[in-house]
Fold these 2 entries.
Entry 1:
Amino acid sequence: MFILSKLFWIAAQPLSLAFFAIILGLVASVLNRRRTGLVLSLAAALILFVTLFTSAGTVALQALEARFPKPEADPAAVSCMIVLGGAFDTEVTTSRRSIDLNQGADRFVEALRLAWKYPDARIFVSGGDGSLSGAYEGDAAVSRRFFASFGIEEGRLIGETSSRTTFENVANSRQLLAAAGLHRCLLITSAFHMPRSMGLFRKAEIEVIPWPVDYRTGGEVGLRLDLTQPSINAQQTSTAVREWIGLLAYYLTGRTSALLPGP
């Protein structure tokens, strides 16, 4: 299932869809199926236009980010926090033996802030190597070096190193959390990723407190033309499409109880 999901996403992301539509359109034209070729070419142009030159992706991400608002103040006490992986560039980190963060870095920046503020809190990191090759060091392993470099005691850390997907994050963490006696932990992940994550934790009957970070939108963007940043628009759209597909897939397969989990 993991490999199938990876291969599906390679083909299903917006720019890939546009590419395949162009190729199929050319093939159709060569085979004298000009009308089919024209339809496919127009579909590719529409996908590219929406992806590159509108705020559609940002609007779609915004809806996810608004689902679980972050509390205005820190809690009075924190006994534990769960940090979902996805914040390290695992390929670069592994090949260079370094600690290289990606766009999801806020997950660990926030965990570090809370670790300093609540010195007795345990830190549970869930994340293995999510690549197809399986050749890289996962987030849970890298995070030990990350936290150690900022003076966080290793005894406070618990790592779940085998998960490759959000579903596996939750499934593989359940017994480890119970064995460590950790309950009602803060759940730290990207705001757009929080609905799917909360749906999985609820289905697994693990009580957590959502603590969203890594916002990718300003929160008040409307649907409009945006000709100034096509590469960023493409990234926003790709992230949004992937997350919405994940929500739908998990709901249809019974892994979550709601299509769009909320508070």
Entry 2:
Amino acid sequence: LRWANYLRADIKRGEFSPEEDDTIIKLHALKGNKWAAIATSLAGR
């Protein structure tokens, strides 16, 4: 799965934008350490 995701051109790579950072912080406050649930809210990541 990781290799398939690496090959996908529509997935963003690199550092998170300030907006994405804010989204991650807010979602972590709501959902805790449920990173799979948080990841579904980050389109293209």
